[in-house]
Write a structure and sequence with these properties.
alpha+beta, 4 strands, single chain, 36% strand, 1 helix, 77 residues, four-stranded antiparallel beta sheet, DUF5703
């Protein structure tokens, strides 16, 4: 399983997606789906990620896009 985080400056989308960061999970056909499901659940529960898109490619590869809102903290004096 390969993980890649996409920030808004390198985002593959434009428009309303600017307020989000993305985590892309790429899974090979030999990996077990229960293990992938556990990893997705852990990211959602502990990292505050939400599943946005799932793609299944020819040959059995899966790719999952998770996103979370970027929280901008303003400095207070």
């Amino acid at each position: 399983m390969r993980e890649q985080i996409l920030r808004p400056d390198r985002s593959f989308k434009a428009g309303p997606a600017k307020g989000y960061e993305y985590l892309v999970l790429s899974v090979g056909p030999s990996e077990s789906l229960p293990e992938v499901r556990r990893a997705l659940t852990d990211h959602a529960e502990y990292g505050k990620w939400e599943l946005e898109r799932t793609r299944i490619y020819r040959g059995g590869h899966h790719r999952y896009w998770l996103r979370r809102k970027i929280m901008r903290v303003e400095r207070t004096f």
